[in-house]
Design brief:
The protein is built from eleven helices and no strands. It is mostly helical and 172 residues long. It has one domain.
Length: 172
């Protein structure tokens, strides 16, 4: 496959993105009236896959009800962090997770945990290229901003924004 991609001047991520619309449609049909047990089964199969699990996870987050995804946001954030980034950009996974969390509130006892997980994930990705890091940074900041604005008290927002300013060395 790599030889064919080289001849066509393409990359694995671009090739995998060709599967996304079909996979999204199939999973949307499957998830239309599905319950959480089906989501758990799909996530388990996704975890057992050796390759392509990032693409599948992205489609799962786009297809199932946001409330189902938001209730598992911490677990999914950890999966994204631990996932091999070959073939599918991590920032797109965070974007899908962020849309679900924006549409449905995560459990109260997991809000701060999710905030810390997303921050940890961002720190891990700083070793990547500048372009990838800046795309990821924008997605992570969007997710953090929504979590802060929607679900946390003003005192926690102030503390978290102060931490972000220190982490990113912003002198404002």
């Amino acid at each position: 496959m790599q030889t064919a991609l080289t001849v066509q001047h393409s990359t694995v991520p671009h090739y995998l993105m060709l599967y996304a619309p079909a996979l999204d449609w199939v999973l949307s049909c499957l998830a239309h009236q599905a319950g959480e047990s089906l989501l758990d089964a799909v996530l388990q199969r996704c975890a057992n896959m050796s390759t392509g699990n990032a693409l599948l996870l992205n489609s799962v987050m786009a297809s199932f009800r946001p409330a189902f995804i938001a209730s598992r946001a911490v677990e999914l954030s950890r999966r994204i962090r631990d996932m091999d980034d070959v073939g599918f950009p991590r920032h797109l996974l965070y974007c899908s997770l962020g849309h679900c969390v924006a549409a449905a509130e995560p459990p109260d006892n997991e809000k701060l945990i999710l905030l810390n997980e997303v921050s940890r994930n961002d720190n891990k990705d700083r070793k990547q290229t500048t372009a990838t890091c800046s795309r990821l940074l924008v997605v992570v900041i969007r997710l953090l901003a929504y979590l802060l604005r929607s679900y946390l008290p003003l005192s926690q927002i102030s503390a978290e924004l102060g931490d972000c300013l220190r982490v990113y060395h912003l002198n404002i």
